[in-house]
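ARCHIVE ENTRY
Sequence with per-residue tokens
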Amino acid sequence: MAISQRLQKYLDDNNIKYVVVSHSRAYTAQEIAARVHVKGSQLAKSVIVKGNGNDYMVVLAASHKINFAKLKDFLKVKALRLAEEQEFKDLFDDCEVGAMLPFGNLYGLPVIVDEVLYKDVEIAFNGGNHVDVVKMAFEDFERLVKPQKASFAEHM
């Protein structure tokens, strides 16, 4: 299996150095981190949330969970909830369900990244499927995605 063609083209068009690490099929971020031998604080997981009629992609470390009160404050919304997969699966038509890329900008979504991921020089994430992880420099990820930085996650 190969990573998302949309992602591969975007990275290649921007002359980004990256590595694809294949692993046996895994579905949870912690499981994937163990299989590819990266810290849970380095593997990014992407989650879609809905607030005040808007969709947001939030990206946090595999070892963390969303603190909804903090995220609501940051987004300045009254109500916030996790989006259900049926609500966004068609948007990510080049990804397997549950293996979204943290590149919400490629799908028209604002991206908010938890500050924990800023502590590493490298970021790792699903390549659009459950068997490939992409590793790249965090500064390249930040330059391409232009996310908002926030403190909204807590260690599990």
The chain has a mean pLDDT of 94.
